[in-house]
Amino acid sequence: KNEVEQSPQNLTAQEGEFITINCSYSVGISALHWLQQHPGGGIVSLFMLSSGKKKHGRLIATINIQEKHSSLHITASHPRDSAVYICAVIPGAQKLVFGQGTRLTINP
Amino acid sequence: DSGVTQTPKHLITATGQRVTLRCSPRSGDLSVYWYQQSLDQGLQFLIQYYNGEERAKGNILERFSAQQFPDLHSELNLSSLELGDSALYFCASSVGPRSSGSYNEQFFGPGTRLTVL
């Protein structure tokens, strides 16, 4: 079993829908990253959080340390949100441990 | 643009060869991390340097080595290349760690796509 599990693995939705991607982890962590990877391959850090909730534009990330769970929400989704979203945890040391990613496709 | 640069963007080479990937961190960042993203293994941490010293090691093969130079740029050397080494190699940088228990956000470079034929 992977230390970091994401669900769903693939998600297709219509433009405007509310999107939720989940991340569960089995190890103690000091922080968690949500990353976005576009088809060109580049990786962008969306959020780093260790507690509570963060919001940036239409993106919201939450984390529940006790339940070892984080969610990434996208409101009013748009085709340009189509990408792979990756959850990565920091289990105390400096290295990141990655989930397998969620491929999101938003159709117009 | 994260401020992290990687060269080259693409690299095509043959089995048995040796290549060097280069990374320049964001201005002011002292830590450099190397990651490998392959189709079957996903993203994996390889190695971290902080201010020229190796700080953490992950699933890095003995055929691979890295270093961080006084100007803080880093190089990842891959030798005796095999078909399975074909992957995207990412570099990331961060300010810290200032202490062993602290964590600073990492910023990723655009990656180097290595194809071994």
Instruction: Give a count of the beta strands of chain B, DSSP E runs of length 2 or more.
Output: 11
H/E element order of chain B: EEEEEEEEEEE
Q: Give me the Rg of chain B, rounded.
A: 14 Å
Main beta-sheet strand count, sense and barrel state of chain B: 7 strands, mixed
Distance between the termini of chain B: 31 Å
Helix content of chain A: under 10%
Strand content of chain B: over 45%
Low-pLDDT stretches of chain A: none
Number of DSSP helical runs of chain B: 0
Q: How far is the first residue's CA from the last residue's CA of chain A?
A: 36 Å
Helix fraction bin of chain B: under 10%
Mean pLDDT over the full residue set of chain B? 92
Would you mind describing this structure in some detail?
Chain A has 108 residues and is mostly beta strands. Helices cover 0% and strands 58% of the residues of chain A. In chain A, strands 2, 4, 5, 9, 10 and 11 form a six-stranded mixed β-sheet that branches. In chain A, strands 1-3-8-7-6 form a five-stranded antiparallel β-sheet, with no helix packed on it. Chain A is globular and about 40 Å long. Chain B is mostly beta strands and 117 residues long. The N and C termini of chain B lie far apart (31 Å). In chain B, the strands form two sheets. In chain B, strands 2, 4, 5, 6, 9, 10 and 11 form a seven-stranded mixed β-sheet that branches. Chain B has a four-stranded antiparallel β-sheet with strand order 1-3-8-7, with no helix packed on it. In chain B, strand 5 and strand 6 form a beta hairpin. Chain B contains no helices and eleven strands. Chain B is globular, with a radius of gyration of 14 Å. The relative contact order of chain B is 0.33.
Features of this protein?
heterodimer, A: 108 residues, mainly beta, 5-stranded antiparallel beta sheet, 0% helix, globular, B: 117 residues, 7-stranded mixed beta sheet, 4-stranded antiparallel beta sheet, 11 strands
